[in-house]
């Protein structure tokens, strides 16, 4: 190891990141198995995906400390595909999903995730925190006499709740005494020893399914390589690629804000795409960044690549060597860890924003959170961005205004201010009174901006209104793009090379 690397990885950092990886790996097991069941695949299909995706993205991705794996947001999309066509089609879909994500990275489109408005980010975080929190309640159900699932009752429920509460209490209180080891890891160990020593009857990881297995082996998806197969898998691949990238890059942005650092979205997208291609060829269900496990890792001090690499190695070792012991861990302990993580992930400070930020921002944040809970992440973010854009357009449409005065020559001058674009055209047109204006009128755009072709059409229409009244209209301080794109009003522009602005206009005719 070089001196530079030695300085980078101190013994304290190695210990902290390895232990945080172990804690995250333990919390990853029940989540991954649960998501595998949602997708109608075996637990090992989910665990192999977690091992491969987490290792590749941790080692080569653009956000150290972020944890990736088999995510629930992807699992719900996979269900219909697996039920209708089988798991082999899922493997082929995951490979194509990875290819699409690699193309996204090669096109260097990761930077556009930073255009997602902050209220959408806030809604995304709060929505996912609620999804993760409420998803744990499924573990409080057991098989009934009729074969269906029913809620726990009596002593079983009391034991489960007591162990969850004890886990959460240890996680919250232990850091006040020592931070030498992750409190979540200590909580899991204490609760596991307590259950074993007292012989308590409670659900364990093994109740979700066996995690014993060997190394993942290379496997070409057993599907026909023809156009019909592509027609089946491409829509799923596209949706999965989009959801995976959105969740990953939003999580990356969140960690950037928490750590006051800057990740590399294109590099992360490339690593995730390569990871999904690999996991598709090694019998995994694919994956993306997981905000819950990322928060567990970071709260335990895992800020380096080592934590994610260690997590994947520990997870693989569970499958190969320690499945018997891992299956003995009480589910209550892991549920307690995830409850704490969800509570810490939720942006409680967002409630303090009521009355302090614009109401549309509050609405967008709540809307995204609700859609995330009841639909899926991709739809939620898309809805949030569209609503934010419409709100932005509406607010800016109201800002176009004009002050008027008569100059020395008796000409009426309209001095515009604001942005003239498709949403503000009605307000723009209402500013002018051709019938009442004098014979000569000047429209000054020095403090206004013409944004799109709709605005240019409105300027042409304004010129037509004054022409019908037999009055002379002059336009000042328009950019060269505006002059080039104007129709009949082009000859009315007063050109001043020193004062005219040079902004571009959103129009295909110049491109």
UniProtKB/TrEMBL annotation:
Q: Which InterPro entries match?
A: Membrane-Transporter-like, SLC26A/SulP_dom, STAS_dom, STAS_dom_sf
The source's superkingdom equals Bacteria
What are the record's GO terms for cellular component? membrane
Topology in the lipid bilayer: Multi-pass membrane protein
Read off the PROSITE patterns from this record. Answer: STAS (PS50801)
Q: What is its main location?
A: membrane
Which residue range or ranges hold the STAS domain? 413-511
Per UniProt, which keywords does this protein have?
Membrane, Transmembrane, Transmembrane helix
Name of one Pfam family that matches: STAS
> Where exactly are the transmembrane stretches of this chain?
33-58, 65-83, 89-106, 118-137, 157-174, 181-200, 233-255, 275-296, 302-321, 328-346, 366-394
List the subcellular locations.
Membrane
Q: What is this protein called?
A: Sulfate permease, SulP family
Q: Which organism is it from?
A: Methylobacillus rhizosphaerae
